[in-house]
Amino acid sequence: MSDNITPVTFGPVFHFKGVRFFPTADRRAVELVESFEVRDDDVFLSGYPKSGNTWVQQIVSLLSTEGDLSEVNKIPIFVRVPWLGTMDKSGSGKPMPKFLKDAPSPRLIKTHMPYHMLPRQTREGKGKIIHCVRNVKDVVVSWHKMREGFEYLPSGTFDENFQEFINPEQAAFGFWWDVVPEYWRHKDDTNMLFLKFEDLKRDLRGNVVKIANFLGKTPSDQRIDEVVSYCTFSAMRDNDATNISRNELFKGQRKEGFEFVRKGKVGDWKNSLSPEQSKILDDIHREKMAGVDLTFEFE
């Protein structure tokens, strides 16, 4: 392990402004997000956990790179796209908002924050936001698998984690049915691009072009093809820079056999959710999404 990289360690679960944050976030950083100084060329990559966030980060980081993509692709995704609500792991010991103050532009920044907790200047239109959503049933299952796989994440049985997910006060990083509609209400903001995981699965190349256009970039067809080749799920799963469970920084933090980039399928929830659990999600979804003209593919 490099001498200037600090091994991953995490603190306790905490609440901030009514949102429950898991140990991957750090209160010292989260408290600084509201006042974070945003640059015009900042790009915030947001999404509820396990909604295609790493996928979008990989696409955007490669589109934002000049030169040989194979070299850039060796840099861990959490270095290319640092997480705003965490502590820097490069040895500075600073909360990420302070660490990023001196980072070169353009800055690509990951966040799991609900929209209303994003930096104030971003909500006022500065910088760009790319938000990715995924059908809630696959999110529930993938979130459990991640909690089960990483030692540092508090986890219970699948049923216990399921019950926590559907409880607004216990859900990590906000209640899904609050977070997603709030972002959707801002889908037409000039600095917002709203994506769906299922659309990326159906037409990866078309969505890479869509993201490039939003970023104001005009890569050649050859460059687009090259980005797509690095952003297939098989390529990302086999890459230690994106499949972070294989990265040496996380040694001792994952259970044997766990893969952070797991399946990336639409409808895999059928292999984990019971009929009763599926119905519970259907009922909540119907109630909470009433009046919200956002639809999802569940298989």
From TrEMBL:
<comment type="similarity">
    <text>Belongs to the sulfotransferase 1 family.</text>
</comment>
<dbReference type="GO" id="GO:0008146">
    <property type="term" value="F:sulfotransferase activity"/>
</dbReference>
<protein>
    <recommendedName>
        <fullName>Sulfotransferase</fullName>
        <ecNumber>2.8.2.-</ecNumber>
    </recommendedName>
</protein>
<dbReference type="Pfam" id="PF00685">
    <property type="entry name" value="Sulfotransfer_1"/>
</dbReference>
<dbReference type="InterPro" id="IPR027417">
    <property type="entry name" value="P-loop_NTPase"/>
</dbReference>
<feature type="domain" description="Sulfotransferase">
    <location>
        <begin position="40"/>
        <end position="292"/>
    </location>
</feature>
<keyword id="KW-0808">Transferase</keyword>
<dbReference type="InterPro" id="IPR000863">
    <property type="entry name" value="Sulfotransferase_dom"/>
</dbReference>
